[in-house]
Specification:
This protein has 103 residues and is of the alpha+beta class. It has a single domain (7-97), classed as 2-Layer Sandwich (GMP Synthetase, Chain A, domain 3). It contains four helices and three strands. It has helices at residues 10-29, 47-50, 70-81, 84-87; strands at 33-38, 54-61, 89-97. It has a three-stranded mixed beta sheet with strand order 1-2-3. The longest helix is centred in the first third of the chain and has 20 residues, at 10-29. The protein is globular. 21% of the residues are buried.
Length: 103
Amino acid sequence: MTQPWTEADIPRLNPARIERIRERLTQALAPAVLEIRDDSHKHAGHAGSQLGQGHFSVYVESAAFHGKLPLARHKLIYAALGEMLQTDIHALSIEAKLPGERQ
């Protein structure tokens, strides 16, 4: 069975993924700041891109992180993204901070 897309299609596919990432993180964490970057172009030919998944970076500032260590903050993000981590996201770089904590 052939794939309905090629690696050249990834920039076209990922804006919808970025919006889904934004919606899920906004709903779960009510972030004060949310930045999402598509890094897929840096990984052309990589296994994840061959499967149609993307490489993304997120920067999130949320009061939901209050009292939580970095691992717990990351777990909140993973939980919010749910099955997207299996179907749409091959790699995810995370910066999770409290509001105003950015250096």
